[in-house]
Amino acid sequence: MIGTKKEFSSEQHTLYTELIPENKKIINKEKFIYEVTPKHKRYRVYIGKFFELKKGLHSVFNELREAKEYDYLELVINSGGGLVLEGQQFYNLIQEKFYKRTVAYLDNYGYSMGALLFCMAEKRVIYPYSDFMFHTYSGGAYGKGGEIKARLEHSSKKLEKFFYDIIVKQDFLSKAEFKQMLVGQDYWMGAKELCKRGIATHVILEGHEITAKEYLKNLKKGKKSKIPKKVESVEEA
Description:
disordered C terminus
């Protein structure tokens, strides 16, 4: 049934799926040319802490892996972070099933792994008081001396590359800033900084969605935003 919502939950995250009906957009009225978007699913995941202790993410990811060509993913992030390995599962899923079809909303904050997840999306939407923080990973190992050393060296190399690919390759931090992050520097950012760095692509303000560039331009002028009449739909992102 069109529009029917289903819920799938883990301990920390909740997934809702909804079937979106076919949509026709007029390209040329005289020639009766339309752009047709077939019916598809919207997968919306509310993101909490990355710290699943019991059933894990099996039911959530099993449903997400059923996604088809026109389906898209929304991530609503309100997270202080948690286990990097769980965040990497989301990264793998986006690469496999939702590449360039993921929208993230920073509601209300994204720190650590929550910040990295936000950066994985193609379209990244914030609010005027969204809060954000990059920092390096933390962890440990136990066992015999040689085992500890080998594991730490392996994990450090892997995680540093993972962080680098998400943060530096997209120019969200410079290489110099990234080096400082790895030795303990935290980078806290609000809406203005997120827009300046390109981490945020859009801002929701006064009931409308505007681009990050428009938001910065209006901040500079010290005036209220010139809100467009029509909100950009996520299907067109």
